[in-house]
Design brief:
CATH class: Mainly Beta
Strand content: over 45%
Order of helices and strands: EEEEHEEEEEEEEEEEEEE
CATH architecture: Beta Barrel
Radius of gyration: 21 Å
Distance between the termini: 14 Å
Number of domains: 1
Number of helices: 1
Shape: globular
C-alpha cells in the first residue's frame, strides 16, 4: 500500500509513505519527503525492511533486517517536449542485522554513496522509453556477532568496500487505444570483484522481479531480470488487464566462498495483472503469477498473488 500527499507547502513538494506485507513474515515500510531548491529536487527518506539471505544463512533460517536513512538529490540538465535528462546522487546509512530466532545475531552497518543518470525519451511515435544507470560505492562494517548474549567481532565474507552497477530500462509502445506493449529490464553487476554482503545482493524472486518465486530465491551478486506484458484497456473505464512473462538469470561474482553456491540461477514465470487506476486519485493492482520452473527442492511450481493499493491526496 502507498499514499502520497502532494503540494503540502504549496511549492510542488510531496510526502510519500509505503507499506508492504507478505505471508513470508516480511514487512517493508518507508516514508520520504520531496522538496525543491530551485531546480534541485531533494528527498530525505527513512525505511525499514526485511531481506532474504542466501546459502547457508538461508538454510539456517536467518532473517535479515535493514534500517535505512538517506537523502537523494536530483538535478535536470534538460527537459523538453520529447526527452529529459537528470543527474542524481544519494547517500545512505544502513543498520543491518541478520538474526536466527533469539540465539544468534550478526550486526553490521554500511555507508553508501551513489551517482547516476536517468531520463525519458519520447521521440519515437507511440513510444515512451525511460532509463537509469547507477554506480554505488559503499563500505560494510562488522558490528559484532552475539550468541546467547556473548558478543565478538569477526572478519566475515561481505565486509569491506564494494562497488556495483545497476541499470534499469522501461519501454511502453502504444499500438492503439486498447493495446500497449510493456517491457522492463533490470541489471546488477559487481564492479570491483567484491564479495557482496547479503544486503547488497539481488534475488530473482521478488514482487518486482520474477513474481512467482519467494523473495530471496535465485540470489546472486549479479543478475538480469526482464518482464514482458501486453496491457489491454477494457470496456470498464480505468480498468486494465495485462498478461505478462517474467524471466531472470543470476550468478555470484565469487563462488569460492563456503556459503555461496557455484551454480547459476534461471527462473521464469507467467501471470496476469489486473489494474484499476483512477488517475490522480487512487489505484488497486492484483498480480497473479505461476512459475514455469520448479526452484531447487520445491515440490510444486511456485505461485504468488500480490495486492497493491495507492492513494493520492
Amino acid at each position: 500500500a502507498s499514499m502520497s500527499f502532494n503540494n503540502i507547502a504549496h511549492q510542488g513538494d510531496s510526502l510519500n509513505a509505503y507499506l508492504q506485507r507478505s505471508d513470508e513474515a516480511q514487512t517493508n515500510y518507508s516514508i520520504s519527503y520531496t522538496t525543491f531548491l530551485g531546480n534541485l529536487k531533494i528527498t530525505p527518506s527513512y525505511s525499514k525492511r526485511n531481506y532474504a539471505l542466501g546459502g547457508a544463512y538461508k538454510n539456517a533460517n536467518f532473517i535479515g533486517t535493514s534500517e535505512n536513512l538517506g537523502i537523494d538529490l536530483k538535478y535536470p540538465l534538460w527537459i523538453t517536449t520529447y526527452n529529459s535528462f537528470y543527474l542524481t546522487s544519494s547517500y545512505y546509512h544502513k543498520k543491518l542485522s541478520n538474526s536466527r530466532l533469539n540465539i544468534m545475531t550478526i550486526d553490521k552497518s554500511s555507508d553508501t554513496i551513489s551517482f547516476s543518470i536517468e531520463g525519458v525519451y519520447n521521440g519515437i511515435s507511440n513510444d515512451s522509453f525511460s532509463y537509469s544507470a547507477n554506480v554505488s560505492y559503499g563500505n560494510v562494517k562488522d558490528g559484532g556477532t552475539t550468541i546467547l548474549g556473548m558478543s565478538s567481532k569477526t572478519d566475515g565474507d561481505g565486509f569491506g568496500k564494494f562497488a556495483k552497477l545497476n541499470v534499469n530500462l522501461n519501454n511502453a509502445y502504444f499500438f492503439n487505444d486498447t493495446f500497449t506493449h510493456l517491457f522492463s529490464l533490470n541489471y546488477q553487476q559487481v564492479v570491483n570483484g567484491a564479495t557482496l554482503d547479503s544486503s547488497e545482493t539481488i534475488s530473482l524472486g521478488d514482487p518486482y522481479g520474477v513474481r512467482a518465486y519467494n523473495n530471496g530465491d535465485g540470489e546472486g551478486d549479479n543478475a538480469v531480470v526482464a518482464s514482458f506484458g501486453l496491457r489491454m484497456a477494457t470496456p470498464l473505464k480505468d480498468f486494465y488487464i495485462t498478461p505478462f512473462y517474467d524471466i531472470g538469470y543470476s550468478w555470484y561474482e565469487n563462488d569460492s566462498k563456503l556459503y555461496r553456491a557455484s551454480e547459476t540461477n534461471y527462473m521464469d514465470a507467467y501471470g496476469l495483472q489486473l489494474l484499476y487506476n483512477k488517475t490522480g486519485n487512487f489505484y488497486v493492482k492484483l498480480d497473479l503469477a505461476r512459475a514455469l520452473k520448479k526452484y531447487k527442492l520445491d515440490d510444486d511450481y511456485s505461485s504468488k498473488a500480490y495486492v497493491s493499493f495507492g492513494k493520492y491526496f
